[in-house]
Amino acid sequence: MTARGGKRLALLSAVALLCWIIAGIIDAGHAREPYPASQAPMTISDGHAVGHRRTERSWSIVYEHLEESGDGIFIEAEGIKRATLYRKGMAMLTLQADRATVNLATDDIALVGHIVGTGRIGAVPLLLRGDRASWRERTEQLVLSGRFLLISQRRRLTVEECILDLRHQRIRTSAISGSASMSAKTREITWSTSSRASAT
Fold this sequence. Notes:
With 200 residues, the protein is mostly beta strands. It contains one helix and twelve strands; from the N terminus they run αββββββββββββ. The strands form two sheets. Strands 1-2-3-4-5-6-7-8-9-12 form a ten-stranded antiparallel sheet, with no helix packed on it. The model is unreliable at 25-35 and 186-200 (pLDDT under 50).
């Protein structure tokens, strides 16, 4: 073999090796898994999740089924046996629901389906029933939306929207059926002609 032929063969070999390396890189790029092992969704059955506000408990949920998102920001829970909301470490409201979505970055919670709750705002004991509620961690408020029924001292109040403010111990309502105001001090609901009402 001549020197020229040897150089040509070496050049062809080098080109072939380079093409093989490039093809391997491209193929590896197409062979990625849907989730990296560390980001695979986690599923748990019959468990208990807890959130904290600094060093105090903020909320807790007892569920039948839970799935955490791959990025670890959201958890989706079904069959909510007991969701408890706390103020300064003390349980203030306890709810049941079909489903709950928790934003672990903000500790906000969305509850949906057949919601039943008990607790008290100030001196007012409450029983509530509805289909949609949202817990706002930053303001410590539970927002009830849709059509909700509030029951206190054997009196019933139907509202389209209601805010239970745990921080300031107030109840704010709007779009009331049979307008009323509820006093957290006297534990009474007073019927009025106003279209809006709030507890003071």
